[in-house]
Design a protein that fits this description.
The chain is an all-alpha fold. It contains eleven helices and no strands. The radius of gyration is 17 Å and the shape is globular.
Length: 206
């Protein structure tokens, strides 16, 4: 999931990339639903995606495909994490998942980075990215899910594309045009609409 997502960031801005990725959790929630109102959320999300991928939006189709692929992995992760949560207590499941994920990324990492991976600075940056982008946030989300309703968690997570766009604007000066802003807003609205209902599948990361 992260390999595809970070690859997409080489091609498209942070906000649209996160929005495309969020299609995975949104799809899981929609497939778990049986209400007619969800047709509205599907329409909103589809419109948002078209705005992001259409004229005036993100036009790098490979970048979009990579972000959507990351979203598919995220959706599968949601379903698998439910079983992992039942099989392991505390953070054991997360620790095992991190170890397996790291092992799977050794081959592509070595192929791209080569000897540079042995440099102390690269090792330090890699460790920081692993902690800040995966281990710490996933651990926080696991604890949050133990104290707040799933629906509330889902609504908060649905704000992620907007927060990512804001972070991209402030931290790395990635501006957004009107089409991209509208597309992100529609996907956020669709996600919040689907995930706020009791019993909806929230995009769980642990």
């Amino acid at each position: 999931m992260n390999l595809l997502f970070y690859s997409s960031l080489d091609r498209i801005p942070l906000g649209p990339a996160v929005t495309f990725e969020f299609v995975g959790p949104l799809a899981v929630a929609l497939f778990a639903s049986r209400t007619r109102l969800d047709l509205l959320w599907v329409a909103l999300a589809a419109t948002g995606i078209l705005l992001l991928a259409g004229p005036g939006g993100s036009d790098d189709m490979l970048g979009i495909a990579l972000a959507l692929g990351a979203g598919g992995c995220w959706g599968a992760y949601i379903l698998i994490s439910a079983r992992v949560g039942q099989a392991f207590s505390g953070g054991q499941g997360l620790a095992i998942a991190m170890a397996i994920g790291a092992g799977l990324m050794v081959a592509p990492g070595v192929a791209v980075g080569g000897e540079a991976l042995l440099e102390p600075e690269v090792i330090a940056i890699g460790a920081a990215v692993a902690l800040l982008s995966s281990v710490i946030p996933y651990s926080f989300e696991l604890e949050a899910l133990r104290t707040i309703p799933v629906g509330v968690f889902g609504v908060l997570m649905s704000l992620e594309p907007a927060v990512a766009a804001l972070a991209g604007l402030i931290a790395i000066d990635q501006g957004l045009n009107a089409a991209e802003v509208a597309g992100i807003a529609l996907v956020v609205a669709a996600s919040a609409g689907v995930l706020r209902r009791p019993g909806a599948a929230a995009p769980r990361d642990a």
